[in-house]
Amino acid sequence: MDVNGKTVLLTGGSAGIGREIARQLKAKGAKVVLTGRDPARLEAMGAEGFETMAADLSSAAGVDALVAAVGDRQIDILINNAGLGVPHDVRNLAPDPDAADGCLYANLSAPIRLITALLPRLRARPRAAIVNVTSGLAIAPNTASSVYCASKAGLRSYTMALRAQLAGEPILVVEALPPVVDTQMTADRATSKMPPEECARQIIAAIEGDRPEANVGMVKLLRAVYSLSPALARSVMRRF
Description:
Number of strands: 7
Radius of gyration: 17 Å
């Protein structure tokens, strides 16, 4: 898909991977409308020439408010990138169930609700795309982030089913599976991290190449290990 001239709605576009996706798409000639929760970051992206919308996607009301703000404008590409991470480890203090609910909604329910709302206008375009950003943890979970892993695994399953449902229609359905990327969410991680610029580049390359999956960086190796031995892949990932 040629992204030049396309209108993109990008959630979570004011920081991290999303910010780099926005910048690189703009450089390729796309019109990017991005969402975020932090007013200062949205203002900074606005100063770069992006149209921005404040949106908290951790509830149905937040998703519906975003849909209302989008109005009746055409959308060619929807990128569900916004996400929340939450610690959830019952070996420590009792996890916060409300935080778990917010994570599950933002990472799984919000993309489903947004796709459902915007699918008619995507279908009205000559060519469209839906991009759901999951994680390598959707393939094999780690231990400490069980709720985050579950939400991303759920979105992976939904994306595969959606792709099958839309087979034969001019809508590309892409799942992007990043590894550990150097963002605010991973600031406390001491492991090697991929620069967000490179992660964004590989995701956009998948869109431009009409590829259904963007297995980014080390996720390619994880996929290869999983294809040989799912048990081994799960054992490796549980160490992180």
